[in-house]
Design a protein that fits this description.
about 325 residues; mainly alpha; extended
Length: about 325
């Protein structure tokens, strides 16, 4: 199994890109080394899983209780970062132990992709916690400082939200280690964030039935989509979660499309170009005005009119016989 090389952003960032934080987030949190989706159906499942994960991340009970609290969102973001920092390495570590135990490969073979995924994890957590810290410190500064911090904080907020969307799809680029790791991590993370509320009975003011429905709705949905995604990876590409990445065959690259038809030249009327031929070539043989095989009108007849003739010898007159 080979791993892609290259720069982190693939050279897509420019100075103007920083005017749009979502463009920066796409380059930073979905680096060029993350492998592309294998087919459109798997990519569509990832998008659905991202939507269900967003419902779990922000918490539908926040809207059910009658409003959206920005401070509560910051607290949830900080909590989610701590959960990710704990559960992601733990889940990957368990899979590394199982792969090592199978004897099909070693952990050392996965060192480079593991380090890249770890860098992406730390980069996202640092950005999210930094955004939370900026908003918390904004009120302790003067008016000018508060204004400056607000501008930076809003840019960082859009940057982190767009990054969270990218991260939810690729789960810190763990697909470069194994294609089944992103759906597995999505499932484990959503369940880990939902189970404590059920264990402690913290239903956020909802009834038991509504509380269980809204708390378990997102992880059950994410789990079903993740199982379907892994099932398609197994049936269509032979990729199983239990297989060490070293034994998996390299995935084929995207199939190139048909070559585009070149546009007609500018001098062609209505885009039509007549068939080209050599006007000075050898004319076709045969009679173009009759039915073959009557021959060519240019073919000489049975006698050559220009052939040399014998010299003109008039017949001798009869001898003169006088009357």
């Amino acid at each position: 199994m080979t791993y892609p090389q290259g720069s982190w952003t693939g050279g897509t960032l420019t100075a103007r890109s920083f005017l749009k934080p979502h463009h920066v987030a796409r380059a930073v949190f979905h680096p060029a080394w993350i492998p592309q989706s294998l087919d459109p159906s798997v990519d569509a499942l990832k998008k659905v899983r991202v939507i269900a994960g967003a419902v779990a991340g922000f918490g539908v009970y926040t809207f059910v209780e009658g409003g959206f609290a920005f401070d509560e969102m910051l607290d949830n973001a900080a909590t989610a970062c701590l959960v990710l920092l704990f559960i992601t390495p733990l889940t990957v570590g368990v899979m590394l132990y199982l792969w090592q135990r199978s004897g099909a490969g070693t952990v050392a073979q996965l060192k480079e992709p593991l380090l890249r995924s770890l860098k992406l994890l730390l980069l996202f957590i640092g950005s999210a916690l930094g955004t939370v810290l900026i908003f918390q410190l904004g009120g302790s500064l003067g008016m000018l400082g508060t204004l400056l911090v607000s501008v930076v904080g809003l840019w960082m907020a859009f940057f982190v939200i767009a990054g969270a969307y990218r991260i939810s799809g690729n789960f810190f680029g763990t697909a470069v280690v194994h294609r089944c790791l992103p759906p597995l991590l999505a499932t484990v993370t959503t369940w880990l964030m939902a189970v404590p509320d059920l264990v402690t009975g913290d239903l956020h003011g909802l009834s038991l039935a509504m509380g269980v429905f809204f708390i378990l709705g997102a992880p059950v949905t994410v789990t079903a989509i993740a199982m379907l995604e892994m099932g398609r990876l197994k049936s269509r590409y032979g990729i199983r979660l239990a297989d060490h990445p070293a034994v998996l065959a390299p995935m084929p690259g995207p199939t190139p499309g048909p070559a585009p038809t070149p546009p007609p030249p500018s001098y062609a009327p209505n885009g039509f170009v007549p068939p080209q031929a050599n006007p000075y070539g050898t004319p076709p043989q045969g009679n173009p005005y009759g039915t073959p095989p009557y021959g060519s009108p240019y073919t000489p007849g049975p006698q050559n009119p220009y052939a040399p003739q014998p010299p003109y010898n008039p017949p001798a007159p009869p001898p003169y016989n006088p009357q």
